[in-house]
Amino acid sequence: MRRLGVLILALIVAVAALALAGGSAATRSSAQGRPVRVVTGLAIVHDLVGRVGGDRVEAFSIVPPGADPHTYQPTPRDIQSLQGARLAVWNGLGLDETSADLVAEQGLPDLTVVVLAEGITPIAGDEHEHQAEAHEEEEGDEHGDTHADGNPHLWLDPAYAVRYVERIRDALIEVDPANAETYGANAAAYIGEIEALDAWAKGEIATIPAERRKLVTFHDAFPYLADHYGLELVGVVLKSPGREPSAQEVAMLVTEIRQHQIPTVYAEPQFNARILELAARDAGIQVKRLYSDAFDDQVKTYLDLMRFNVTSLVEGLR
After folding, report:
1. In the chain, where does DSSP find H-type helix?
2. Which residue range is the domain that position 64 belongs to?
3. pTM value?
4. Cβ distance 157 to 224 under 8 Å?
5. Is the distance from CB of 220 to CB of 128 less than 8 angstroms?
6. Do 175 and 55 fall within a single domain?
7. Burial of residue 100, with CB atoms counted within 10 A of its CB: 0-12 exposed, 13-18 middle, 19 or more buried
């Protein structure tokens, strides 16, 4: 009988321990809460948010992978997906203005907004046009405005990508302080990966002879990459998305290619680069690819994009 009592007491203690453990787990789950719904306007920013937030965020990019952020038009499904968003992360400098305007129109309650490029002095001279402005040009308006505040493709300089990660970390901590330690650890690990990739990239670029470090691209997205890695940006075909270059501009580009003895020019997968291909054929050189703000089946993350770009530059210019 005494032995039975001991067994019953042991069973009670075990059940109590399990209940306590379950209660603690429930408390932790309650503290963590549901994942933070985050809306972005670019696939690149979506990837950065996912790396910093991990499984504590549910991120959504209005502009899907592979689409051109200059011209993408949001759908009703995009609008529906915004419901419940607690954080909006924009690049800024006009690149994701359509997405930002769409979200602002929804009047989402308690939405925190962070603009990653804010406070950074951009490189001037970017001539990207918004879709509406390009349309105005097609209708005969020759005074369509550009991204007057500067070139928005900051993340192609890894030093700016690190600043983006830090700002995303801080924004997530602001809206979800209970998981600050997770966001901090994820950001630190990711920054380490970006810096390691950057060190590798600098070593690779150094193998290109100095006189061949000259870059001709289809889209004016690469001044930060060129500046960071010591490349001379010689020419750009498509200075304003939505406006085809004139025959004179193409002829001038061919002349520049020949004068600078450029061995390779670079297209982007989201653009029809027929004009660049014709110019390259006239100059007797090859066309390779670079990625700026769109993903595809081959390049699915920011780190993939940077590795691909560096490899393509070395293969094309060395």
Report:
1. 2-32, 43-53, 76-81, 97-106, 131-138, 158-175, 180-205, 223-229, 247-259, 274-283, 302-317
2. 36-117+155-200
3. 0.83
4. yes
5. yes
6. yes
7. buried
Q: Are residues 182 and 287 in the same domain?
A: no
Q: What is the residue-wise DSSP string for 78-102? A: HHHHTTT--EEEE--TTTTHHHHHH
Using pLDDT thresholds of 50, 70 and 90, give the confidence band for residue 241.
low
Choosing from 145, 170, 200, the residue where a domain stops is 200
215 in the same domain as 194: no
Q: Do residue 40 and residue 163 come from a single domain?
A: yes
For residue 14, is it within any domain?
no
* Overall average pLDDT of the 237-247 stretch: 75
Residue 125 β-bridge partners: none
Predicted confidence at residue 59, as pLDDT, reads 97
CA distances for 199 relative to 159, 160, 196, 204, 206, angstroms: 11, 15, 5, 9, 11
Q: How many residues in total does the chain contain?
A: 318
